[in-house]
From TrEMBL:
Native source species: Noviherbaspirillum sedimenti
Cell compartments where the protein resides: Peroxisome
EC nos: 4.2.1.17
SUPFAM superfamilies, A to Z: ClpP/crotonase
Entry keywords, A to Z: Isomerase, Lyase, Peroxisome
Listed name of the protein: Enoyl-CoA hydratase
Gene3D superfamilies: 2-enoyl-CoA Hydratase, Chain A, domain 1
Primary enzyme class: lyase
Amino acid sequence: MEVSMNTNIRITVADGVAEIELFRREVKNALNAATYDAVTKALLKADLDPGTRVVMIRGQEDLFCSGNDLGEFLDPQGQGTRPALALMDAVQALRKPLIAAVGGAAIGLGTTILYHSDIVYATPDARFGMPFVPLGVCPEFGTSLLAPLFSGHRLASEAVLFGETFDVHRAREMGIVNQVVENANLIPFARQRAMKLASLPSETVINAKAMLKERLYASMHGLFRQELRQFDAMLTRSETQAGIKAFLERRRAAPANN
């Protein structure tokens, strides 16, 4: 077993599975530039490692990811969406299967990354959301195409336009989640499934994944950039900046649940 960690993620490689654990619980596993970079490098390394056959991304059984660290969007000297784009490209290029284990909050990119995961397991109390419109920005990570393809136009429109959180039952209805697993079993179950997949012929699995995604995801590279150009432009608007500040104030005032 190989284990490595930094202040943002923990990586464990064992039995053919590279397990990437988001670990910024003080900010609900939000992704800042350093975390994006760490996850991107972990994905690229896993894809090149002949001993890794499956990649698993997770938080903890009660917390997955609350999306982008919005405070960085208020920094005029910050990197904007560039770190997120590098992660998106790495996920899109990943040849090996990606399994996501989702407990608790999966918000923003915490939800949109699931459209790119090959298999998703989630807990009964998992909650999802794409609050881009309420924050004054637009969908990202190919969601403008993938949400209606996965869920149909009406379910996707309700989720994206209102930006409200939704539960695991709606997530299954929307085609985002494969199976619901009790909290205590989430990580062991997802790990066991990843190990089973890793035990199958590696090149056959890689080839099958490529065939499944070839047509659906052919346009992702350009779409990521098209969405993020609009996202970045909308970030400069005063009403968007005010909305993000108000959101962060509400979050700071709210009692911590995780």
